[in-house]
Design a protein that fits this description.
By secondary structure, the protein is an alpha+beta fold. It has helices spanning 21-29, 86-89, 92-95, 153-171, 178-191, and strands at 7-14, 41-42, 58-62, 68-73, 82-85, 104-109, 121-127, 150-152.
């Protein structure tokens, strides 16, 4: 008796022809982050109401990892998304990384392909229930980070919340506590990465 276990994820890629030529070229030329799903172009892939349009999308069967992925370039005002099984969308060096074998959202920087093109950052969100990759991708949030390969978005979100608390403290005339809050922010940001 042979038991075959399969797992389903929504599978699509946004229409590339809607992007600027430079961005389309950059996305198509990268080979170090994801595999381009040539057979799954869909006008509904970036649609925030994807869950109501699921019948218009392909499904991909995952057999190795029960993980779905939603991937998009980390660029403001760009609506381009790739969805599918983590094992088939991510390149081998990322999919074997244990960090990407569990739920979470990450920012990953691609390698510089040509000296005339800057490397791109991507938001990669991994989820672990069937068809969980139907939601809207996380919005663009400006961060200034180093050239590291990838990092978890959770510390950034916590740092942003702490920054808001600092701003609230300023507005409430709590200037005496600002050095302490700044120290806490510094500690949380650097110790959690």
């Amino acid at each position: 008796l042979f038991i075959f276990t399969a797992y389903g994820c929504y599978y699509c890629i946004s229409y590339a022809h809607l992007l600027t030529p430079n961005l389309r070229y950059q996305l198509g030329a990268q080979t170090d982050i994801f595999h381009w799903p040539a057979d799954a172009s869909s006008p509904n892939c970036s649609n925030p109401s994807l869950t109501t349009n699921c019948h218009l999308l392909h499904v991909q069967i995952c057999t190795k990892f029960p993980l779905c992925i939603t991937l998009s370039p980390y660029i403001p005002n760009v609506s381009f998304v790739v969805r599918g099984c983590m094992e088939q969308i991510l390149v081998a060096k990322l999919r074997i990384d244990e960090k990407f074998q569990k739920q979470g959202c990450y920012i990953v920087r691609s390698k510089r392909i040509y000296s005339t093109l800057a490397p791109l950052d991507y938001i990669i969100c991994i989820c672990s229930t069937e068809y969980c990759n139907s939601g809207m991708q996380n919005p663009f949030v400006y961060t200034n980070h180093s050239e590291s390969d990838s990092f978890d978005l959770v510390p950034i979100i916590e740092a942003e919340q702490l920054a808001k608390e600092i701003n609230d403290a300023k507005n409430n005339d709590l200037a005496d506590s600002l050095p302490l809050i700044a120290l806490i922010l510094f500690f949380k940001l650097f110790c959690s990465m």
